[in-house]
Design brief:
The chain is an alpha+beta fold. It contains 14 helices and 14 strands. It folds into three domains: 101 residues, Rossmann fold; 69 residues, ATP-grasp fold, A domain (Dna Ligase, domain 1); 155 residues, D-amino Acid Aminotransferase, Chain A, domain 1. Helices cover 37% and strands 19% of the residues. The strands form three sheets. Strands 8, 9, 10, 11, 12, 13 and 14 form a seven-stranded antiparallel sheet that branches. The chain has a four-stranded antiparallel sheet with strand order 4-7-5-6. It has a three-stranded parallel sheet with strand order 2-1-3, with helices on both faces. Strand 12 and strand 13 form a beta hairpin. The protein is globular. The termini are far apart. The structure holds adenosine-5'-diphosphate and magnesium ion.
């Protein structure tokens, strides 16, 4: 029997996918994911999340849903939820209240991931290195906050509730108090009354790491970005796939892979991650590694970096999505269908060298 999957997303027409709607899925991405779910032998129900009431109404028309595959970051009719760090949790709470389990990290973990100050505090408590930082609220006396912190210019300033580089550009690197103030004002103008984070600027190489949960944690081949990628802004991320031949890929045969594997798995556990997470790690000038971002709902499309990592192992986008679905179903105590298991059989073999049972690791 097929698994019945409710696919929940936020989608707006391509011309509206800027600013606060920058993280919404395009129609193309929704189609790609829909096709992937169908290819894995699932029965699929589509839901573009506009408001809690609408989500509950749509769910009430459906029966026996096994799992909600939720890439929605909030509700379209409540645009604040899409970027203020609250949406991923709210949408999960609404769906779970209807008795349907949700994919990806749970409500608490999402709360940690979607607020970078919480992410940093949580990781730091587990001994995982994160940049020194302080938070800024509207109306704060930035100069005295800086003086009270132990960090020094240059700093990097970003919204705490970020995602997909909303509010991030080359101007995020600030060399002095004037620049810090100017950038803080401009972010408050763009995003309203949000929390900002000022943190140590890390000038070294950046890595992005895809990790899948389960008894064995699987870390996909890791992307090391070219050194000339100074700041990965929303615009530059959109074009990254075009210069992929310049990316360095760390496989499980590379010792740096296992160093990053340990950071990734520790971070995954620290935020109570589930199913799939992508995190960004950056080096400082001394090549020390720091986690700068943990994404609980990483981008999933045919051109996403996670897909690129999977394709490096000859695993297709469709297989990747169903590996995630199968893991999520199992995590909720639901048996994936034979159709799905057969569909991902080869992919699982290819992933064998990319994981280990973390607690048994030396
Ligand atoms: N402390 C930092 N030092 C240098 N660059 C940074 C720092 N923090 C973020 N960046 C740059 O900004 C990009 C986006 O920041 P990130 O924290 O990952 O937010 P988002 O959630 O928007 O992806 C990163 O990929 C990186 O290129
Ligand atoms: Mg990021």
């Amino acid at each position: 029997m097929k698994n019945r999957i409710l696919f929940v997303y936020n989608s707006v027409p391509i011309e509206e996918r800027t600013g606060i709607y920058g993280e919404c899925a395009s129609v193309k991405t929704v189609n790609q994911l829909h096709q992937a779910l169908l290819a894995g032998g699932n029965e699929v129900f589509l839901l573009n999340a506009r408001s809690p009431v609408q989500v509950i109404e749509e769910i009430s028309k459906l029966e026996n849903i096994d799992l909600a595959f939720v890439i929605a970051e909030g509700f379209l009719d409540e645009p604040d939820t899409l970027y203020d760090g609250s949406g991923s949790q709210k949408i999960r709470a609404v769906i779970q209240s209807q008795g349907i389990p949700t994919s990806h990290t749970g409500i608490h973990g999402m709360e940690v991931c979607r607020n970078k100050d919480h992410t940093y505090e949580t990781l730091r408590m587990r001994g995982i290195k994160v940049p020194g930082f302080f938070t800024i609220q509207m109306g704060d006396d930035i100069e005295s906050m800086y003086a009270a912190s132990s960090i020094e210019f240059p700093l990097f300033i970003k919204p705490a509730g970020g995602g997909n580089s909303v509010g991030i550009s080359i101007n995020s690197i600030v060399d002095d108090m004037d620049q810090l103030r100017t950038q803080a004002i401009s972010l408050f103008e763009e995003l309203g009354d949000v929390t900002l984070i000022a943190e140590t600027y890390l000038s070294g190489q950046e890595f992005t790491i895809g990790i899948m949960g389960g008894i064995v944690k699987t870390v996909l081949p890791i992307i090391a970005f070219p050194m000339h990628y100074r700041v990965r802004s929303h615009a530059s991320k959109g074009k990254e796939y075009k210069d992929r031949e310049q990316f360095q890929i760390l496989t499980s045969e590379d010792s740096r892979y296992w160093q990053l594997y340990d950071i990734a798995t520790a971070s995954f556990d620290a935020v109570e991650g589930r199913d799939i997470i992508r995190l960004e790690v950056r080096e400082d000038a001394n090549k020390e590694l720091y986690v700068i971002d943990v994404n609980g709902t990483p981008s999933l499309s045919e051109s996403a970096s996670l897909t690129y990592m999977a394709e490096y192992l000859d695993i297709s986008f469709k297989e990747l999505i169903n590996v995630i679905i199968s893991g999520s179903l199992k995590d909720h105590g639901i048996k994936p269908s034979i159709l799905t298991e057969e569909f991902i059989d080869q992919a699982k073999i290819k992933l064998r060298a990319y994981g280990r049972i973390v607690n048994e690791a030396v």
